[in-house]
Amino acid sequence: MRQRDWGVVGRLSRPPTLLEEEPEEEKDGKNSKVRYQTDNYTPTSDPTPPQWSQHRASLKTRFPEGWAPPHKLSRAAMDGLRSLHAHDPDTFTTPVLADKFHISPEAVRRILRGKWQPTQEQRARLLDREKRQRQDRIRSRSAAERSGETGEKWRKGGGQRQR
User: Fold this and answer.
1) How many C-beta atoms surround the C-beta of residue 130 within 10 A?
2) pLDDT higher than threshold 80 for residue 145
3) pLDDT digit string (tens) for 25-61?
């Protein structure tokens, strides 16, 4: 079988066999020991590219208290957003999805970047909590309508939801 060159400097991450000889010291006294790929070392370059640190700084200025989106999507809506983008990323770009789902482009970017998937138990708990929260919102709206608190707001808006 032909060995591939994976572009790794030095040897691959495996200990030397007992049959191999130890590397000899060089003439100038330095040890020419080959460092394995898994050895701990500090990188010579900056590990954070300047674009990332610049983006992180801009997020700190835009969201000083941290990320708290004004509109939150349900788990099903997030899955739909991901599937639309996976189906056709050229058509369903971040700005298009942000406009369709009425959320910020930053929220779309975070949803697409996130890879966390709940387990079956977690998904059941999340669905139950969303259902309870939805029922509580409906109850509070209906109680407010019965008490006449939102009557003026609905008359001004023509009975339609304002966005």
Assistant:
1) 13
2) yes
3) 555 555 555 555 555 656 566 666 788 888 888 888 8
Burial call 95-124: b when 16+ CB within 10 Å, e when fewer: eebbeebebeeebbeebbeeeeeeeeeeee
Asked if 71 and 103 count as a contact pair (C-beta separation under 8 A), the reply is yes
For residue 163, what are the CA distances in angstroms to 71, 96, 102, 114, 160? 11, 17, 9, 27, 10
Query: How far is it, in rounded angstroms, from Cα 78 to Cα 85?
Result: 11
DSSP 8-state symbol, 26: P
In total, the chain counts a number of residues equal to 163
**Helices of type H across 5-162:** 50-62, 75-87, 94-101, 105-113, 120-147, 151-157
pLDDT value at 76 more than 60:
yes
35 phi, psi to nearest 5 deg? -85, 135
Judge whether 93 and 105 are in contact, CB under 8 Å: no
According to DSSP, residue 36 is labeled P
Q: Three-state SS string across 10-24, please?
A: CCCCCCCCCCCCCCC
3-state class of 60 per DSSP?
helix
Distance between CA 66 and CA 59 in Å, rounded? Answer: 9
**Token code pair at residue 57:** 């700084």
